[in-house]
Fold this sequence. Notes:
The protein is mostly helical.
Amino acid sequence: MTVASVWSLDRTVCDTAIMGKWIGASVALMVSATALSLYFILKGRNADVNIIGSLDMAWPFTLTGFIVMAHSFLQMCSVLHAGNGIVDGLLYATADFDNPAGVAATLTVTFPFMSGVKAYKECSYVKQNVFTIVVATVALALLALLRSRAGILAVGAVLLMRGLYKRDNFLRRLVFIITLVAATTVIIISVTKEGSNQGRTLILNVCMDMIKDKPLFGHGLHGFRRNYMLYQAKYLERCNSETFNLLADNVTHPLNEYFLLTVNFGIIGFLVIAVAVLMTLKHFTRQLYNDTFTGVSVLTGIAILSMFSYPFRYPLTLVGMICALFLVFRDQLSDSQGYIKKSVCTITTILSIIGLTIFVPWSVYQNKWGKLVRSSENNKTAQKALDNYSVLYRHLKNDPYFLYNYAYILAETGDCFNAVQIAQRSFKLMANYDTALFVAEQQKECGNMDYSEEYYKLASAMCPVRFIPLYGLFQLYEEQHRFDDMKQLGRSILAKPVKVQSAEIKRIRLAVRQKMVMYNL
Length: 521
């Protein structure tokens, strides 16, 4: 499961950085759950709950952590490709993920296993302490180089827990020093990343608006991706802040997992998770030994990282959480009565089999779509691709990314009417700047000028820093001979602050200036 969570990379999947890992991890997880549950059902009272030993579970995570750290350092040194190791003058590494947040999530999940693996072998306290300190220093150094404040806090907290748990004065002193250095590093990074902090403030304010509208049960599954950009557009129009206007961009995830949970499922959903956490802590206080401590350390690291980042974007976090819960509750499962154990295993088996019957076909269609995208890139005609897209539509009609690609192919063949219909469905499932701009362009092609104007304005409101929707609206006004609107909008484009100067912005401003001179505006 750990291998599938980090290194599954099916080149036929469109999003190879994440989707391939989720497919591999999900299949491995459901197959493993089914196999273990069937083992417990068939063995009955003779089933050994310790069939998977602590060391058996620790080593895969430990090796994964070490490999990801080595991979990241090699990328920083430009030995392995990752943006040449330096981006904007800073060291950069992603290992096998889409961004450094994946590295932070991996180290958070694997560090408790890496630092505790020596405890499962009969080593002296000195060797255990030295091993823990070395691993912690390397992990925290990597996270500091990646400027991951959340990762430093999560790993630092787990290290502090281990120091207090071992009750060793020397280790406590070292842990205190490392924790102090980690806290200082977080403060320094926070001060130097002012723009990031302001961007977080914007996302926080918009999320609070969403929670206020539906506080109890939230906006539903995928409610954030369906509604956030619409709320951001309203908020930016209301507050009219030049700073926020320059920072606003497409947002696919809130500040942390807790905001995502509350936005999607409301206060009720948040309370359900809170109760589950309290039950886990209550059980941990009754059963305090290496296994339960390692499990709670993993859960604590994930909980802290989830306050500042989005670790559940990566499947290893889910795998690590399940393994940690198994470590914490393993004894309770072993001591439970036979019918309870059998009922739990039966339910797990049924759910896993149902999940496999749904997930495997979906994965097959995702692979077919990925192959189709790559064949289209190899100069296949849009019409041939369209025939295949129409077949896949029946199975992937609730995937906004697929719908966007389908709409693009329809537009390539000149079918703007159906392109608009498919793109609008994609927009309902995931409202964002790119889809709004695409719908505006296709509505214009279809001659629906009023709708085109509406979506151009919406795209501009979502990301006020962008020039393309304003220029599209400027051209729309020109076609309609609305010269007063052209004059007003043209002046706004020429006076608009620029976040990052580019050739495209210069081209747009030059074209607007020439048009205004042509029409004597």
